[in-house]
Amino acid sequence: ASGMAVDEECKIKFQDLKARRNYRFIVFKIEGQQVMVEKVGDPDQGYDDFAASLPSDECRYGVFDFDFTTDENCQKSKIFFIAWSPDTSNVRMKMVYASSKDRFKKELEGIQVELQATDPTEMSIDIIKARAI
Asked: Alphabetically, which GO biological process terms does the record hold (predicted)?
């Protein structure tokens, strides 16, 4: 595991998303030697808002609370963890994010689906829906 510290706010905001549904999504950024909360999305924001808050040329971690209806017409939600690592981002940062991911994910209990994406097509809403069911 890398020596990346996780800011306490990351865990608090994640608990709020999971337990209270105060947020639709959270975007995390590695700053210095620590994972920080960069942005949170209001409950009424959608997946497009989440995708738009990921920079096109920098790595991020994201958590998205995805609501969906099953074929049996049941309302469900799943918490997605998305490791965003665009091809255009700095190679060193890609390595830092890749080596810190598992340790950071362990800090966030309750993640149900993990997705790795290097461009927006790899995390399209269709892929999210397919992975949720």
From this structure: actin filament depolymerization
**Phi, psi (rounded to 5 degrees) for 95:** -70, -40
Q: Give the Cα separation of 26 and 72 in Å (integer).
A: 29
Q: What are the residues facing 63 on neighbouring strands?
A: 26, 81
The architecture CATH gives domain 5-132: 3-Layer(aba) Sandwich (3.40)
- Cβ atoms < 10 Å from Cβ of 117: 18
Taking the domains of the chain in order of start, what are their residue ranges?
Answer: 5-132
26-59: b (≥16 Cβ within 10 Å) or e: bbbbbeeeebebbbbbeeebebeebbebbeeebb
